[in-house]
């Protein structure tokens, strides 16, 4: 029962992360670079939540491992787009710090989940 509660909390956390990215996207400048990077960020961040939700419905440990691997790839890509936003001086680093930190924590949790799924 505890496992389901943890998964539900993590599903909610990844969904809230995606919503934060959606809000960020709405504030980006209308320049081509900002919109292109923003759309990539939007795709990868929302994919983290959607794919984790899918992983929670996995029918086996192997399927869970595979789906969580996709989540990890998408979370890593999300970090890249966040870094590009500040390194290209589109958004100030201070404004992205909490979002970056949350993404990093989600990435670490997913990596641990994947590692532990192989032990079952």
Structural key phrases:
single chain, 120 residues, mainly alpha, de novo design (two linked rop proteins), 85% helix, 0% strand
Give helix and strand order, one letter per element, not per position: HHHH
What is the level 1 CATH name?
Mainly Alpha
Q: How many distinct beta strands?
A: 0
CA-CA gap between termini: 17 Å
Shape: elongated
Number of helices: 4
Number of separate domains: 1
Q: Residue-averaged pLDDT, rounded?
A: 94
Q: What is the level-2 CATH architecture name?
A: Up-down Bundle
Description:
The protein has 4 helices and no strands. It has 120 residues and is an all-alpha fold. The chain has a single domain (2-117), classed as de novo design (two linked rop proteins), CATH 1.20.1440. α1 (2-27) runs antiparallel to α2 and α3 (61-87) packs antiparallel against α4 (93-117). The protein starts with a helix and ends with a helix.
Secondary structure blueprint with pairings:
Blueprint (H helix, E strand, L loop, with lengths): L1 H26 L4 H24 L5 H27 L5 H25 L3
Concise account of the structure shown:
The protein is mainly alpha-helical and 120 residues long. The protein has helices at 2-27, 32-55, 61-87, 93-117. Helix content is 85%, strand content 0%.
